[in-house]
Amino acid sequence: MMDAAEMTRSMREDLVDAGFQEMKTVDDVDRVLAERHGTVLVFVNSVCGCAAGSARPGVIAAVAGIADRPKLTTVFAGQDREATARARAYFREFAPSSPSVVLLKDGAPAWILERRQIEGRSPEHVAGEVRRALEVAR
Q1: Directed axis angle between helix 56-63 and helix 123-137, to 10°?
Q2: What is the number of structural domains in the chain?
Q3: I want to staple 46 with a disulfide (CB 3.0 to 4.6 A). Which of 7, 18, 99, 118 is the partner?
Q4: Active-site residues: which are they?
């Protein structure tokens, strides 16, 4: 039987290969998100179907080829629980949602794409929403 790490490996690697920095521990989150300048995109990953079918491919497509892209980060809800809880503390203005895409601008939450805005939508739709948010955040 496959353990959780084996099951989620490709779900993590897709993002890392696209330039996302994994935050697996509370220390990882604080090291990255405590910086209060610039734009940070946080992808809250999940094992659900809408993460696999829309969110992950959409967020990867959104940042592909962008020269002036924000810092790209990810936490894995349900897997790296403490890191996810700590990341959510940085954007507590938004209700927890998995998957989700959050933009932090100079340390403040600026935008979120929640699960309810991802479910049933195409990766292209997700990519478009993320790209629009990145343009506004510049």
Answers
A1: 40
A2: 1
A3: 99
A4: 48, 50
Measured in whole angstroms, how far is the alpha carbon of residue 10 from the centre of its chain? 15
- Model confidence over 63-92: pLDDT tens digits? 998 888 899 999 999 999 999 999 999 999
Q: Which two tokens stand for residue 104?
A: 């932090």
3-state secondary structure of 79: coil
Question: Crossing angle for the helix pair 26-33 and 81-90, nearest 10 degrees?
Answer: 30
Residue in 64, 66, 120, 130 with CA at minimum distance from that of residue 100: 130
- Render pLDDT for 99-136 as a digit per residue (tens, 0 to 9): 999 999 999 999 999 999 999 999 999 999 999 999 98
Residue of 35, 5, 4, 42 whose CA lies nearest to 20: 42
Residues of the chain above pLDDT 90, percent = 78
23 vs 74: CA distance, rounded Å: 6
CATH no. for residue 34?
3.40.30.10
